[in-house]
Write a structure and sequence with these properties.
Oligomer: single chain
Largest sheet: 8 strands, antiparallel
Strand content: 15-25%
Number of strands: 13
Structural class: alpha+beta
Length: about 375
Amino acid sequence: MIRRFALCLSLCAGLAQAQSDPATAALAASDRLEQASVMLGQAETASDRVAALTATVQAYEDGLVALRDGLRRAAIRQRAIETDLNARSDEVARLLGVLETMGRAPAPLLLLHPSGPTGTARSGMMVAEVTPALQSEVENLRAQLEEVAVLRQLQDGAADTLRDGLAGAQEARAALAVAIQDRTDLPRRYAEDPVQTALLIASTETLDAFASGLSMTIGGDVTGEAPDATDLRGQIALPVQGQVIRRAGEADAAGIARPGIIIAARPRALVTTPVAATLRFRGPLLDYGNVVILEPAADVLFVIAGLAEVYGEPGQILPEGAPIGLMGGESPPIDEILTETASGGGIRATETLYLEVREGQGPVDPATWFALQ
């Protein structure tokens, strides 16, 4: 279905070359989803299934976002054209009437004038002057009507494309979770002491206290070379695609100010390590929900909270871009997505992720490490 929809769009894309081109955007999104489907099939035989499936999930996410954005823009464009045509209904009716009259009358008869040869010559000159403008108006009207037809066809075929894309994304996420669980090739700096971790969780009431006591959860010798992201300060990308809606120290609706930032993200969005780091903790913690704590450099911790699912084992050294969890929520039903896009609504980032950076024994502004713009 995705392939058929892409073919349809490829035939229609050239008709919608306005400043905002929804047909071309939706075509690119459809191609992206088609590529993701192929990637999902190839991931089974990839040498690094985790990396392959991570790229597949991200391809599905990008394709679905782009498709929904293209559909939204298509709906806005269609309404703009229809509004313009409705506002010009009298003008269009007159134009069609003139064209119909000209089509019925023989060409020589149109140029005859009752006043004789002089009037006929003048009428011919007038017709010669009016015809190019009339032809231009006809071409403009035809282009608008064809574009409306294209945009309607685009939206009519969107349901199956969205359904296939959402199903493929869900399949890729499930396969990714299994691949991470089966992974054995990551280096480890240490083995976690689960008893000490449980005691630390039970005995601490603040994130400060927990972070300070993390060293007690290390069991056995510390081996392996620790990552060091110090040179990347201020340039690190966020761990999830989203928008920063609250900066460090800004109070929320309840008047609570935290030292970290809040990122609005889409439901079920993939969360990855922003840089290579040691996984120090993952699991439920206090009132933060599921938490992942990364150590990208000595005495530096990235605390990432609010995930629905978390991946990995404490002590592992994760490469940059490795999946560490999924956001919560559920993708809305197909009908709801189509209703939103038809009304011109954007993609709702309904989930929030908390990101805190700690150096030494205290928090610092995440903007010192992350590129927040």
